[in-house]
Amino acid sequence: MTQPGSSERGPALDAVFKPVQPPTTFEETVERLGTAIRLGLLRPGTRLPPERVLADELRISRSTLRQALTTLVQSGHLVALRGRSGGTFVSEEPPLTRETEGPRLGSEARAVLDYRVVVEIGATVLAVERAEEKDLDGLDRLTADMTLTQGASFEVYRRADVRFHIGLAEACHSPRLVVAMTEVQGQMTDLIQRVSHPDEVLSHSNGQHRRLVALLRRRDTARAVRLMREHCEGTEHILAALMPD
Hints:
This protein is mainly alpha-helical. Helix content is 64%, strand content 3%. The relative contact order is 0.15.
């Protein structure tokens, strides 16, 4: 097992371990480490620095780092070993170092992600202005449904997730926007079903859903829009980490 000492790093690894910038610290950390593993910058068997050291180097909290590491363990990129010689190591066969089939995160995927940003942000703005109490209560129920699906198959969670985003569009009382949201959610499903879905990622995403509903209730357009942009950007980081370029 090897460990990437700071004195042995080149510019590429220096970039991997530079401080992570908010607001998407969790997702960006997953992307940063996942991409380094996929590209071979962190080779199989490499031992990551201890949590305290790595969190300090990335300038993120240890709880955020632990979430990111757990995500990469669940996706098969890392393995966590206990005991005196334990630690967190790059898997001997990371899932994305082998040839994979399916769409890559290229121009077509980028077009879908851009379309999603436009639809989701627009829906958020109108929902702040138009959502009724019954609409917001329905969104709250859907976040509860997603909490109950943790540990179940991703398909079960994803159905509740899709209903939430379509429910956001329905809260705008704009039938045409509902059609657009339904279309983009179908396209997003085609993308994200190609990667693993650790519970840490799903839990973090649903936490953003709950915060969004709270901001809609407060009619706080600026914070709601900022949160939705973070939500979309977080998905982009996860896809960049776990899907081939």
